[in-house]
Amino acid sequence: MPRPLAALRRYTRRTFETRDPPQVFAPVTSGVSRRRMRACECCDLVVALPALKAGERARCPRCDHLFAQRHAHAVQRTLALAMACLVMLVLTLPFEFIAFATSGISASLSLIDTPAALTAESYPSLAVLLILTIVMLPALYLLGVIYTHAAIGLKLPLPGIRGIARTLSHLRPWMMADVFLVGVMVSLVKIAGMADISFGPSFWAFCAFALLMTKTLASIDGDRMWFALAGEPAAPSGTLPGIGAALQGLASCHSCGLINACGEREAHTHCRRCGDPVHQRKTQSLQRTWAWLIAAAILYIPANLFPIMTTVSLGENDPQTIAGGIVVLWSHGDWPIAMVIFIASILVPASKMIAIAWLCISAQRPEVQHARARVTLYRITEYVGRWSMVDVFVVALLAALIQLGALISVHPGPAALSFACVVVLTMLSALSFDPRLVWDTETEKTMMANTLFGDLPLTPLTGSASLASSSQATPPFTTPFTTPNASRNPPSAAASQDDL
Questions:
Q1: Which of 52, 240, 317, 399 is the 20 to 30 A CA-CA neighbour of 183?
Q2: What would the pLDDT profile of 428-455 be if each residue is shown by its tens digit?
Q3: Model-level pTM?
């Protein structure tokens, strides 16, 4: 082995041998196609995607980010699921959703009655939030999936197809059908002891809709979709796998994943494939994250101090805060539901704000030995944030359903709006944070600078993305300079439909 390359490997081994899984490097063969190169959204590492078969996934060897997953008959599968899901969504609207009866008095509720009831209670903003998250945005998302995949299946160049495909990635975090269904279950437990409950056709349609929406989201393969819609332009000449994209003057598109040439100061670069703005790092990521986070922290105070709902029973008002409602549920023996509300309404929002604040602080002093753990924390934080909407959905359902005058009625409190804003603001703060910042360490920059511009020869270092079956976890790393399954699954050398 040449002395300079041996010195580089010894330096790399000393740098990256930590308690966390080491950075993965493997030699690149001459058959790597620039068309199959991608830059990781979470760590910025440039990798070459291998050829994938149905049931396999490609993950980043450094941070475990999912690049692509393949399904058998992917277009037909996604199109069928999206169409069935849209039909179920339409069926949830006109029919009875839930009904209850107590003391000879009965009441029923359809899904579209809930926003109207919130508007009548002088909470139109909550009504808009509810109708957007469970009806409008899912409907737009499903229509976009059907439009794009029908164009792919029929091989039709439909107008506006790239703009619609870009929109899908921005709408995905706001799909909350499963969260609303959990809120319905919690609401039923709260009123089960005081009334007889019956389910209408819309309830069962919504259960099917939530299940199909989950399956639809899991079936979409953005990498293959964009290849079918707009081809696969090659990465810029000279792109090297195993090195950060920003260090090479490159940036990955967040919508379609294509690598584009993008200088550090180029603020108006657009993706060559989808047209979305491209930046090496999200513009003013930390500033925007802090702004959303501070606003959420301010609103979190009234969300916990003021009543989130008020129950009127036989003319007596019983206002309840979030913590007070948890105590009442626990005292009545409904401790599983009390735990759900405690986790979703207190533990998750507080933990999420602390985690995002810590990520923002640590991004200013990144350390490579903790970068992988921080990215994992970011993924968890981004995923669990929307589940805090459970309590907001519970209040909305109870306020719409239980309106029996002085006998018993439920009204939303001022904390409901504050808490809904907290959830939305923490989601926006997580979406504004750029996880690639935690990998921008001085050690990595120095090592790559020495490799590219120093006395050491220019040697591309890395292999293909890690390959794993969809039924298995990503294989563990073995040594700092080998990628599992690299010999059995070499990088693809051409961009063809079969290779994808």
A1: 317
A2: 999 999 998 888 876 665 555 444 444 3
A3: 0.80
